[in-house]
Design brief:
By secondary structure, the chain is mostly helical. Helices cover 67% and strands 4% of the residues. A 3-stranded antiparallel β-sheet has the order 1-3-2.
Length: 275
């Protein structure tokens, strides 16, 4: 009787193991579900959602690093404090693009036409911050800091202040798209991006300034032409914009130098529109 029960138990156990193995095998050969990235459609809404999620993740990561930095400061663990400080420094020094550019979202059809007091205030705030980004030192000094960039031997520029001014410009364009200050904001944003070395973005903002106000009181065509000429090496479009600058911005540029540059480039007689 005992032998019968023993063999019965073995048979049941073997059946369970085999069944379990078959189930595992079935799971392994099933086609895996597609990843989330494979299910996304390349739409503007998807891009915005991804960019917003990325911004949140960046912010949370930075906050967690600051928390652990505070912990090591209080616990006196100098070695790990140096680790997290190095990580924070490297995080602050790498480029962090927004990916959703306000000039891109707004498009080229806006018109700078309405006098809107709130927009005027925003632009004044942006301009004030921009005009006070220089930090003057009384004597030549050597400073290394992720928020400072050497402007000349006794002057440094605060990158954080420039970013604040840029945020104001984008806020104005987003919140008040019919304001007569959108071309001013676009031009200022272009200058800031050019200073940061983001030449393609700067070019877009300079072009928007002209598209939104063909009579904009800034040398946006000239600035765009110089970027195309010296940074992006699109000389044919640069020449077209140099010519437009001579026609529309002659009072704001060195006419003789621009004329000479056009001669140097020896362009073909074709025209390129701002797109």
């Amino acid at each position: 009787m005992k032998k019968t029960l023993f063999f019965a138990a073995l048979i049941i156990t073997a059946f369970v193991v085999v069944a379990s193995g078959m189930k595992d095998k079935q799971l392994m050969v099933e086609k895996p579900a597609p990843e989330v990235i494979d299910q996304m459609t390349p739409s503007a809404a998807t891009e915005i959602a991804l960019a917003e999620e990325l911004a949140k993740t960046r912010l949370e990561y930075h906050k967690q690093l600051e928390k652990i930095q505070s912990f090591y400061e209080q616990s006196g663990n100098q070695m790990k404090l140096e680790w997290v400080q190095r990580e924070l420094k490297s995080l602050d020094s790498i480029p962090r693009y927004r990916y959703i550019l306000q000039a891109e979202v707004a498009g080229d059809k806006l018109k700078a036409k309405d006098s809107i007091p709130k927009a005027d205030i925003l632009y004044k705030e942006a301009l004030d911050i921009y005009n006070h980004t220089d930090l003057i030192f009384p004597i030549p000094v050597l400073v290394k800091h992720e928020d400072l960039a050497l402007h000349h031997p006794t002057m440094f520029v605060s990158k954080k202040r420039l970013q604040r001014a840029l945020n104001k410009c984008n806020e104005l364009i987003q919140e008040y798209p019919t304001s007569d200050k959108i071309d001013d904001a676009a031009y200022l944003a272009g200058e800031i991006h050019e200073y940061f070395g983001d030449y393609s973005i700067a070019l877009l903002y300079y072009k928007r300034a002209v598209q939104w106000n063909p009579n904009t009181p800034y040398p946006a065509r000239f600035k765009a032409a110089r970027i195309l000429d010296y940074k992006l090496t699109d000389r044919s479009q640069a020449v077209q914009l140099y010519r437009e600058a001579l026609d529309k911005e002659s009072g704001m540029i060195n006419v003789a130098d621009v004329q000479q540059r056009i001669v140097d480039l020896a362009p073909e007689p074709n025209s390129v529109d701002i797109k």
